[in-house]
Amino acid sequence: MIEWIEGAGKVRCTEALELDDLPKGTVSRLLVEIARDALGAPIWAPVLVARGEKPGPVFGMTSALHGNELNGVPVIHRVINDLQLRALRGTVVGVVIANVPSYLREQRRFPDGTDLNHIMPGRHDGNVAEIFAYRLVHRILKTFNYHVDLHTASFGRINSLYVRADMKDPTTSQMAYLQRPQIILHNPASDHTFRGTAMELGIPSVTLEIGNPHRFQPEYVKRSIVGMRAILAESGMVAKRPLSMKEPPVLCSSSKWIYTDAGGFLEVLPGVTERLQEGQVMARLTNAFGDIIREYKAPFDGIVIGKNVNPAAQTGARILHLGVPADAKEHGFQERREWKRPKARKPKDTER
Questions:
Q1: Which of 75-89, 228-242, 299-313 has the lowest mean pLDDT?
Q2: Contact, 17 vs 348, CB < 8 A?
């Protein structure tokens, strides 16, 4: 089945990502059916597939698994558009909008209130959110050899440019370093996330948090594009380019969200990537009359990964996300090195 999309021309509609059926040396524009609505109309996920002339692995990018987290969209567009297909070894896939129902509602969660990134890999016979998650995994994710899941902060919060990765895994640690973020957070993937499901399937995967929701941020987008291309180059899929030196990322062994114990107007004082010392005042809470009723202090030395920017704070509101800086050797993390070149992709069975 072929659809005609304004400005895009012909777009191929399919029930699953069948990469071997797509032509080499071109970019295919696909709509992959994930579910159907109450009128029986298909819910399509828009996907770009750049298939090189030469064999190689499949590198996948997914964006907007949370419907209001959009900085990953221009990253995918630019990475795909900048590829030289005649020289590309393997295939680059970009899932532009993974969670279409939430994107259309401009909200983080699935319409039934479920966070898709906490119910992976879903269920084939579950509720609507579980089926949606299951089909994202089996119709798209399983075709990848490497994966980067693109996110941002959620409503009312802002993030640094940071990567979540298992830093004890030799491949994902190198993917994290190559992205050249401001912060790398060691975070083994065992939490029912898309990344965690990919790792369980043997697909090295990291999560890239690109700033803030509901917007495109050119500086963070540009840095993310450069990082994606560095991963492609290190894997042998594209030629290497000289990269300008950036300040090395701060490596964190763990992190903690800190919450309020009362309600009021919240002012979070430090900015993202700012270092805090234990006992330093990091936030103030005032009542409706402007009286300071709480001062919150840093519970340990750390670096601000993300923070709340919404002044309206109920009891239990998030204040900030504080990372614990770490030494790679001390914690047994992998250090920056050249990684082993992957083998060409072998076709995989795709469960429908």
A1: 228-242
A2: no
